[in-house]
Amino acid sequence: MNTSTNETNPGASTPETSPSPGPGTREAPGNVRLIGGEMLLWSDATALGGVTDWRGTALELAGRVVPADGRVLLVGPHPQALVDEVAGRARATSVLLRSYPDACALGERHPELTIFCGRLEALEAAEDGGEPYDLVLALDGLSRTHSAEAPAAAWAESLEALAALVAPGGLLLLGVRNDLGVDRFIEARPADREGADDQWAPHGFDPSYPGGPEALDAGLETAGLSVQRRYAAFPDRQAPRALLSREALAFDLPEALTFALSAREGERMLVADPLRLTRLVFRHRLGEQLAPLWLVVATRPPLGGDAVRPVELPLGLIEEGHALYELTATGARRLPGGEERPIPAGRVVEEILVEACAREDVKTVRELLAALAGWLEAGGDATAATDSLVYDGRRFAAVGPPGPAPVRQEPRVVLCRILWRFAVRLLAAGHHHPWPWPLEADQLTLTLCGMAGRPCDQGDLDQARKLDAELGRPAELAEHAPAYRDLLGARDRLADQLTAALARISRLETKLSYRERELVRAKAKLRRTQRKATAYRRTLGYRLSRRLARPRKVARRVIRLLSG
After folding, report:
1. 352: phi > 0 → left, psi -120 to 50 → alpha, else beta; which?
2. C-beta separation of 68 from 87 below 8 A
3. Three-class secondary structure of residue 57 per DSSP
4. DSSP H or E segment with residue 502
5. All residues at 6 or more sequence positions from 538 whose CB lies less than 8 Å from its CB, including other chains
6. Taking a C-beta distance cutoff of 8 angstroms, is the pair 96, 120 a contact?
7. Please, how many CA atoms are within 13 Å of residue 178, restricted to the half-sphere of its CB?
8. Cα 268 from chain centre
């Protein structure tokens, strides 16, 4: 384990006794202050666990809460873009990091910042005057505010130390990872040991760690803070790209919004299909309880009659590619300055097809594909796919804005591209379908095109794959391996089919054995009849009758000739 080595004192050091960097470490810039518990040979930027990769949603939320004339403190490691955004907006910005190399690198990149290097509990004594901050950002949580030089404090104690840094009327933005998030049920690797060197203290044994939204609110209230808004972050705890408030999750969110909020990365070992579990989470309105991560905006009550600084907090933020949308009460609008538009209603086409394939409902598949082909021929979006279209029973609608228009293609080729992408995703996820003979995506695509009433050949399929590559979102035949539960389900289905086939073979073998016995008895009866006939031909009466019958036959022939 790569940790810092304060050889003089294994415990926490004070500002007066903070060790100077050794000969193997770099010289600290003038804006870096060692406060105790600093880790001289450790960097959170290279940890295998990875710092929470906040992107557009966090940048937008930070831009709304950062006071232009106030003091801001960033606690723990944050993405570089977020630090740059906050440093450019606030009047005075300070950063607390436990890693000495990270503090030096940040101090060199931002000479105007004040960098404190050490553990969280030592910050109050190290700061001149102890003046609190108007905004404290701890979006990565509290786990990376501890040091290997001292036993880690309980979560409630760390929260109390963090809350003490918030000024009256100030704000705290705190990220808290959910131990029972939906991503925990998807990942096969143990959650308490993800392979990162910074996890030298076992997780899950702290009774003060919040086990749900209510426990998180109670912990903040105990620390003297009141919650203004709590967000559920999706799709996972490593790279959140959607923030949904509890007010938004109280409603039945449309599938066009929730379908994409599932994480599936190629390097992850999956137990179950993340899309299926995430859809169940939102369908049963458990998005707040089973969110991979919570982001809380809390405030410390002001002193006396002072008013709280007004902050416009969004109902929700959703990042889709390079676009950022704000969720409103009646729809969503693109930021910045986009027009509000309603979220299309209906079910996602891919989910309808997957369900119909699981039921072996060929009629529904044929009707839906025929309607999709008609929509494309009537001028539908040529860049759409089954996972980006919703269908309400009458019309299709795109989930997001249409992409760049490709070179004009025949509707048959566009339909072939959409169905090819669906076939790839269907086979990659290991879902059941009623056509057992197509073992490849190309064969299944041609079958689906025929069911839509628009037969395609191999040439159309080649053009469809070329069009898919031109759109910049090529589907890979081996994009994802089936999840472990899907493999078990496929194994069980194959076992059932094998059992049914063996039972049929057994019935046929029993029937064949009966037919063989009947054939043996028929052959034995035939042989007995043949022996009886042979014995009858050898009798005297049979030979005499044959000889007496010959003159009569000859006489009849002569009479016919004479009369003829």
Report:
1. alpha
2. no
3. helix
4. helix 484-537
5. none
6. yes
7. 29
8. 10
Rounded to whole angstroms, the Cα distance separating 338 from 325 reads 9
Phi-psi region of 468 (alpha: psi -120 to 50; beta: other; left: phi over 0): alpha
DSSP per-residue string spanning 216-275: HHHHHHHTT-EEEEEEEEES-SSS--EEEEHHHHTS---HHHHTT-----TTS-BSS-HH
Taken in order 482, 425, 288, 146, is the CA torsion positive or negative? positive
**Alpha-carbon torsion (382, 384, 386, 392), positive or negative:** negative
Q: Which two tokens stand for residue 544?
A: 């005499």
Reference 232, options 249, 253, 214; nearest CA is 249
Helix (H, G, I), strand (E, B) or coil at 498: helix
pLDDT band, very low/low/confident/very high, at 508 (cuts 50, 70, 90): very high
Average pLDDT over residues 154-158: 90
High-pLDDT (> 90) share of the chain, %: 21
The predicted structure's pLDDT at residue 483:
66
> Do the Cβ atoms of 176 and 212 come closer than 8 Å?
no
**Cβ contact 32:125 at 8 Å:** no
User: Which has the closest alpha carbon to 45: 100, 115, 88?
Assistant: 100
Name the strand (E) or helix (H) holding 501: helix 484-537
Q: Could you report the per-residue pLDDT of 447-473, keeping only the tens digit for each?
A: 888 888 888 888 888 888 888 777 766
The per-residue DSSP string of 159-173 comes to HHHHHTTEEEEEEEE
d(CA 144, CA 147): 8
Peptide bond into 235 cis (omega under 30): yes
Instruction: Quote the tokens at residue 395.
Output: 């019309």
Q: What is the DSSP code (8-state) at residue 211?
A: -
Q: Model pTM?
A: 0.73
Number of H helices, E strands in the chain: 17, 16
Q: Which residue has the tokens 């808290």?
A: 176
